From TrEMBL:
It holds the Pfam family Spore_III_AB. InterPro entries: Spore_III_AB. The chain crosses the membrane at residues 6-24, 158-176. The keyword Membrane applies. This is Stage III sporulation protein AB. It comes from Enterocloster hominis (ex Hitch et al. 2024).
Length: 177
């Protein structure tokens, strides 16, 4: 009977500690994804501004540079534009961004991140090059704010999540005894 208590205590301790470590990893992964997204938006801005590529072509080129879910977002949006099924770019972009939040993909982006990304599509495609460039610059400023917050708080938040997970597990073990 005592062995079962010890085994249960260890399971609680390891699972709570594991949850804390997982939360810290999610923080770092969100930072990495937002930095990758910022890089892709810079590429898109360059494609639109300097090479004057049509939006579908620019989205496809940028999407092919990244193999992950963000690259699929850009290529799927380009394919949606090329299909010409009567949908506006806003509808196509919002649908593809919502696909990123599906449980199957499991990106560590917050609802706010996804809303800002979906909002980007509302102003692309139907404006002139200058307005598209300004829209991309505005989105890049929002991304920079989020990235700066994540960078400045990364060390303390990751340490906090890990410590809270382990300490919470210890607390539960003590309460169970």
């Amino acid at each position: 009977m005592m062995a079962l208590k010890w085994i249960g205590s260890m399971l609680v301790l390891f699972s709570a500690g594991g949850f804390g470590i997982w939360s810290a990893r999610q923080w770092r992964e969100r930072l990495r994804l937002l930095e990758k997204l910022r890089q892709m938006i810079y590429f898109l801005k360059g494609e639109i501004t300097y090479s004057h590529a049509p939006l579908a072509e620019a989205l496809e080129r940028v999407g092919k540079r990244e193999t992950g879910p963000l690259g699929k977002l850009f290529t799927a949006a380009a394919e949606g534009i090329c299909r010409q099924e009567g949908e506006s770019l806003q509808e196509i972009w919002r649908r593809e961004v919502q696909a990123l939040s599906s449980p199957k993909i499991r990106l560590p982006l917050t609802e706010e991140d996804l809303e800002q990304l979906a909002g980007l599509g509302e102003h692309l495609g139907y404006l002139d090059v200058d307005m598209q460039e300004r829209t991309l610059k505005l989105y890049l400023e929002q991304l920079d704010i989020s990235i700066e917050y994540l960078r400045t708080n990364q060390r303390e938040k990751c340490r906090l999540y890990t410590s809270l997970g382990i300490m919470g597990g210890m607390f539960l073990v003590i309460v169970m005894y």
